[in-house]
Records
---
Amino acid sequence: MSDLVTTSRQGSVLVVTINNPPVNALSPGVPEGIAAGVRSAASDEGIHAVVVIGAGRTFIAGADIREFGRIVSGEAPPLNLNEILSEIENSPKPVIMAIHGTALGGGLETAMAGHYRVAVASAKVGQPEVKLGLIPGAGGTQRLPRLAGIETAMQMCAFGEPVSAAEALASGIVDRLIEGDLLTGAVAFANEHPPVRRTRDLSGKLLGAVAAESLKSLFQDSCRKKLKGQTAPLAAVEAIAATARLDFDAGIKYEATLFNECLFGTQSKALIHVFFGERAVARIPGLPKEVQPLPLRRAAVVGAGTMGGGIAMCFANAGIPVVLKETTQGALDHGLASIRRNYETSVKRGRLTAEAAAQRLDLIKPVLRYEGFDEADIVVEAVFEELALKKHVFSDLDAVARDGAILATNTSTLDIDEIASATKRPEWVLGTHFFSPANVMRLLEVVRGKATSPTAIATAMELGKTLKKVGVLSGNAFGFIGNRMFGPYRHEAIRLVEEGASVSQVDQALTDWGMAMGPLAVGDLAGVDVAWRVRQEAIRLGIPHIEASSFEDELFVRGRYGQKSGAGWYLYDENRKASPDPEVERLVREYAACQGIPQRTFSHTEILERTLFALINEGARLLEEGIALRPVDIDIVYVNGYGFPAWRGGPMHYAETLGLQRVTDRMRALYDEFGPFWKPAALLEQSAKAGRWNS
Ligand code: 3H9
């Protein structure tokens, strides 16, 4: 037996321990090791039962996700978990699975192949495969409904959320909760000599064909709404419903067919790319290993507006005391009232207890001057997006903050070096671009200036983790990664409307494709006035491809600022529900006539190409310029901050899925038609042949 799985004895119980850090994934050798342990018990007269337990922080977090890419590319053979789990299930001696940490995916499937499951109260179990574009592929869709019933199984497999040990006990997945030491409790359970009870033989919770089909339609409808565009959730539900018509062995075969369709499809490739990408972005190439993040025990935030208040909540939510400064009592009261309302809503929705909300609120200390700023390890400035104002605040901060504190500016476009120049310590200055609402959105762009020290970068990246966000490092370019790319993307969306597409057609083409919102509706949400100001600044700075005139200016001059003014690209009712506005269509045709823009109709494919290829091309330029470190950094920014569908993997991954050559060819054709805006980035041209980003 390998070191991955070891055995020991406790009286007449064989203890099989999995030891594959960090999360005891079912890497090659692990399932075989467990089965070998169970097999050895069968022939050992001194053993009457087996306990399987995980060493370290968890039971089994699932199949080894790294293996999937190797299987698809033919480098590794398909996983053979079903046979191994059958062998465990067929053991003539009872097998008790002892769960702590998480039993996820193949981990829960392994646990269900045992005859009993015991768990500590803090454990969680789940079938999260859909989050990787997969369905359970080692019997989960067949064993889970036998233990927990079809409805629970559909809920868990279609949406992928884990359940607590208490819920697992209530639904029959777990047989006993263990207080105190898990192994002791599991061995005690084994010593009660429970009879062998194979999950595959249970049928009490299965349903007849009619009931199973009706649950299937219910869940599939719900998946189509909540997980729009994703195929794995539908397949998971389908496999579970099949328990009504197929016996266990046929069900396992059917599951394998559906699993393989998912595994070899583009969605799982994209979602696995995102899974590893979210972890990869934390590793900064070139940052010396000895550089350690500084501890962040206290924070301060300047500005109690929407962003500042949200950022203060992020610190409080992470248990970090935070001082929140405004210039007037009125603004401070207003900011705190919003924070309080936000917490109250969380309590009402059952996401937070009233006590926890009160504790968090207590951590936020409102001030009107810079009291307490000298104790902060990090200060985040979140005042109005105006360079002169931000510089003024930074010169204040330079005077009040302690040496070695991180001075961060929450800006979406402004020049970090310019802001840092207002201090005598530019090495401690960087950008932290939070996304609105800051206490909800997962993305944190960390922007390094030319003088920012490696320690400051490491600390800001760690801040992302502390605040439960995904931090992505960006260079200091206008708009950083996300907004810089959003510019050309929206530029094309607006051009399409100017050339004859309707506002809702452009937005719908993109939402049907999977974007959370259309680019024009985003303008209304963020504010047409904000977009106008950013564009003026871009023109002032001479950012390439910003045209002097845009139809959006017409909306701006008419005070159509978007949702906040009740009208923008769309009309809004009092609940901010959008409807198309014939007035906008009229104005845009007038504008086009004035500008001499020829009018025509567009297919959805053309709309997608023009907007998404503009996004991809700008991404390639960011890579060339070293603003984004790797294609995956761009993908993670877009998936976490811009509503890009994770199951398409982010813009740069999507370009590879389409074929970089195809993207380049189409861009060249657009270049011939429209000129310099469409010049393919040099990196795209270089990468096209290989079909992979060459960076
Ligand atoms: C499956 O099981 C299919 C089956 O039906 C069978 C089909 C035949 N494999 O997240 P963390 C790495 S599909 C390989 O930072 P945490 C992770 O990349 C699988 N590696 O820790 C990271 O590496 P690094 C179903 C894995 O405490 C390190 O472990 N299971 C796996 O915040 C630490 O991870 C899932 O989808 C894995 N399965 O969270 C569970 N899991 O340090 C996926 C983790 O080099 N995993 N790694 O960056 C998770 O949700 C979280 O990792 C977990 C721990 C909650 C377990």
---
Amino acid sequence: MDAIVRAAAGMEGEATVPGDKSISHRALIFAALAQGRCRIEGLSTGADVRSTASCLRQLGVRIDADGTVHGVGLHGLRAPEAPLDCGNSGTTMRLLAGVLAGSGVGGTLDGDESLRRRPMARVIDPLRAMGAACETTDGRAPLHFAPGRPLHGVDHVLPIASAQVKSALLLAGLWAKGTTSVREPSLSRDHTERMLAAFGASITKTTIHRTDSLRAPATLHVPGDPSSAAFLLGAALLVPGGSVTVRHVDGNPTRTGLLDVLDRMGARITRTPRGEAAGDPVIDCTARHGGTLHATVVEPHEIPALVDEVPLLAALATQAHGTTEIRGAGELRVKESDRLAAIAAGLTALGADIEEQEDGLRIHGPTPLRGATVDSHGDHRIAMSLAVAGLIASGETTIRGAEWVDISFPGFFSLLGGLCRGAVRLRG
Ligand code: S3P
């Protein structure tokens, strides 16, 4: 499917976005492993979270259409009869690797072409060090776990901050004898730590002890995904006269790095506290066009809190005065696509002045953009970042592979088109 984006004459309105993808995966998995029933409200509607739900169903967990999970307890999973299909979702695969290894049910985790290319040794090696028996294809999926291997705790030092790897090890640590600790160079999103503590696991920061049982809350509210809200906020910053408020967004500081960087670039963004959900602060966020955006340097330690927003930041930086440098972002090369290459190619085609580096980007701005045909590279966040750029490009921008937005943000293009008075349409 193609999305056709024209220069927007304005943007105005209020929106909500699908539930946070990271919290949704965890809510489903933790509720499945807990005793009793948990109703999850505001679950992400994206395909990635549907992949997690269908894998859990194959493991014997009942999940109703209204988001009610019937927990089976830490020892109640059933061995799957067929490989578990994680689709495009790295979070599903890595978190469930921890569950299959820890619970001892065994099974195979597989995924689509993109997921089969992504590195899994970073999660399998430490699980093996805990005692898991896992076979891979050169460190990649499919991943085969032998059943019935009891694990023991380890103290693992992550060379690169990764919430997915950290979470896999902490999940395995629920069953492992003794204590499992994970240390990372800078703090990645901490939803697993916060939520496992709320579910009654014996966990302090990133150290977990073998746990007898988890208790689910009767209801769990998932706040809106800041990584999805970012595209609407970014669009309002670029479109002349633009203004948008996104309500009920997760405001966990490990997720709001983009807002912090945009603040120092001079963007007009306000955050209004709106209580709490899933143990996280919730905010309403308003972005307004106006003023001058200044280039900035994003340092490696800042990357974890905005890792999924780097392609969008690159699009925004094409309109900032000076050279924006994004450093220490080599991890983007092993996401759903090689995001450094994909966003550099797309923005260059639109007329941006952008240099791709081994582990980052240098963007010189401001540059006028002009419409062109660009590719999503099968990556939801590349498709949405290029759509935002297309809103200020002259002529028409065609985004090939627009359907990939369904991974995290179904309905993105119609929502954006509604806020931008019809500057967006879908074809095919
Ligand atoms: C996620 C962690 C991040 C992020 C991904 C979701 C999570 O990946 O890019 O979209 O939910 O734990 P890494 O753990 O590989 O950094």
